[in-house]
Structures are given as structure tokens and as C-alpha cells.
Specification:
Order of helices and strands: HEHEEEEHEHEH
CATH superfamily: NAD(P)-binding Rossmann-like Domain
Distance between the termini: 11 Å
CATH class: Alpha Beta
Largest sheet: 5 strands, parallel
Strand order of the largest sheet: 2-1-5-6-7
Length: 156
Amino acid sequence: MDTLKEKVDDFLSQKCIAVAGVSRNESPEAGNLIYKKLKETGYTVYPINPNADMVGRDPCYPDLKSTPTPVDGVVICTRPGVANELVKQCAEIGIKRVWMHRSFGQGSVSDEAADYCHQQGITVISGACPMMYCQPVDFGHKCMRWVLGAFGKLPK
């Protein structure tokens, strides 16, 4: 896959996705918002946080190896250093799609993690937010996608 559109379409065509970096509380952090959006739009979604047993009313898992069924992709909404460990877990258990969240600023993107994904044959989206693409896209995320695109800040 060469283009961002192809990577996004492939990622969002999967039905079982993990979101790493959800918060224990109901805060409006990126991981929680993405988890909720994917769940509301029909995906099977597993929240990942080693320090939480539950996210809302849903069980939370300490790592990618602990989900009850294999996942097709993972959205990483953690510090960049944690992304390095998560992509190693992906390689170990055969997850072939990774999306490192970023809107403005560093986000979860780690160049080291992206390089590791490329070496392991894992398709990686290094930046942007799934909520800019997961239908229906809200007005705020449409605007964010436009602004990031206009300034060349969307991943390649």
C-alpha cells in the first residue's frame, strides 16, 4: 500500500481493532474518544491499558496479547516511547496494521516504532486520527483533516 488513502481504507475495513492508551476514567482523551467512535460505528473494539480493569462498563486488557480474540489492527494513543513496545507486541502476535494517533503536536508517533513496523512488514499510519476518516466524520474532524492536509501535516 502506497498512499494514505489506501492505508486508511484498509485499516478501517477491518472489524476487530484494539485501542491502546485508553484512560481509566471517562475523560475526553484521544484514546477514549477513538475507542467510543469505533465501538459506536460497529467495530469490535478492545481497550488496552495495563493500569485499568474496566473502561466504562467494558473490560480492559493489559496488553495486546490478552484480548479475547485476535485483533486486525491497533490504534496507538500513548506516549511515543510506549508505541515502541506496542509495535513489538504486534509483530509477536501477528497484527499487521498499526495507526499511531496524532492530531497537532507529537501525539503517539515514534519514528523508531514506524521503522520497526516497516522492517516487520506491518502497515503503519504514522499520524492523523482515525476520527478524521471513520464515517460519519464530525465537523471538527473534517476541519482538522482539511487543515492538516492544507499544511502538509498528514502522514504519507
